[in-house]
Design brief:
7-stranded antiparallel beta sheet; disordered C terminus; alpha+beta
């Protein structure tokens, strides 16, 4: 990895007026959430569970909460998904006319868990002798069907949804619609000219505000501090190229240079102060970000105060802290459960 200030020819990417991701080098992300919800529902609609003792089938997915995305980095596809599922079933024993219903719940479908390791819970609405027999069948055969269908979802995500994400080389056909990781930072900024006595514009008065965020992490204070100051850990949760010198006055570049700044203050395991800017903000304008890290008995609480944020960027900046910092840190290092409803 290149050190600060050293040129690395692999990171010189041709600028293209049509915004083409030349040679697939930039990190691009495609939201697979809506597609995944429809695919999962389709896979469990009226699906039978084979059994010699009962007639059982899944009827519908009644809960599908989470997220999924397909990512292209240097021509390599990387997939992230995390789902909390609930699926309804109905059935009856072959020698009975009594019908029963129940649910199967899967709280941990994600790329971190193999399908064979899924926590699958079975319930029946009316628990009696026949209902319990059906539940037992679902615990054995129903779980197998769930794993088979979810394996089909994962295969579809990787083979069908991601088609077109590996883009042609330059001068070939145009890519399909994918977005850059930083696409949420580009709202309009409210600026008012400052005019001197002789009516010559001498600068811009930027309308700014302050963001205040508090997050909890299942880790020690030092572990969270390391996540923001050790280059290998920052690279892991940003999933992009990083330049960083975590010393007072040291500079940093995250997300392929979209976020830049320098460290003003570093207190091990307790506090980090940065000058921080997004590249599309007015030239030379930096916000000040202060991380106060407080270790509690069973978690670490982090309070972040960011002053000098352009007012028109405040909402989307706060959303991107959540998505690209907090959620990514929790996912990358297991510092907290992440479920997006």
């Amino acid at each position: 990895m290149a050190k600060w200030g050293e040129g690395d020819p692999r990171w010189i990417v041709e600028e293209r007026p049509d915004a083409t991701n030349v040679n697939n080098w930039h990190w691009t992300e495609k939201n697979a959430g809506p597609w995944s919800v429809e695919r999962i529902k389709e896979l469990f609609k009226d699906v039978p569970v084979k059994s010699d003792l009962a007639d059982i089938h899944f009827t519908e997915v009644d809960k599908c909460e989470g997220e999924a995305s397909a990512n292209n980095r240097k021509g390599k596809l990387i997939f992230f998904y995390e789902w909390d599922l609930s699926i309804k079933w109905i059935g009856k024993l072959k020698d009975s006319s009594n019908k029963y219903s129940g649910k199967i719940k899967i709280p941990n479908l994600s790329e971190e868990n193999d399908v064979s390791e899924l926590d699958i819970k079975v319930s029946v609405k009316d628990s009696d002798e026949e209902g319990d027999k059906l539940k037992e069948i679902m615990l054995k055969s129903g779980k197998d069907v769930v794993r088979q269908q979810l394996s089909k979802y994962i295969s579809s995500l990787k083979e069908e949804f991601s088609k077109g994400m590996i883009l042609p080389k330059k001068d070939e056909v145009k890519p399909d619609a994918v977005k850059n990781l930083s696409s949420g930072f580009n709202k309009k900024i409210n600026m008012t000219p400052i005019v001197s006595e002789n009516n010559k514009q001498v600068g811009l008065k930027l309308d700014v505000t302050t963001i205040n965020i508090t997050q909890q992490f299942q880790c020690t204070a030092q572990e969270f501090y390391d996540a923001l100051t050790k280059i290998e850990m920052v690279t892991a949760f940003t999933r992009a190229h990083v330049k960083m010198d975590a010393t007072k006055g040291g500079k940093f570049e995250f997300f392929n240079g979209n976020i830049i700044g320098q460290f003003d203050e570093l207190i091990q395991g307790k506090k980090i102060v940065q000058q921080w800017r997004y590249k599309q903000w007015p030239e030379g304008h930096y916000s000040t970000v202060t991380f106060n890290i407080n270790e509690k008995s069973d978690h670490t609480e982090v309070n972040v105060v960011q002053t000098g944020v352009p007012s028109g960027e405040a909402e989307v900046t706060k959303e991107n802290w959540q998505r690209y910092y907090w959620d990514s840190i929790k996912r990358a290092f297991g510092f907290g459960a992440f479920i997006q409803c």
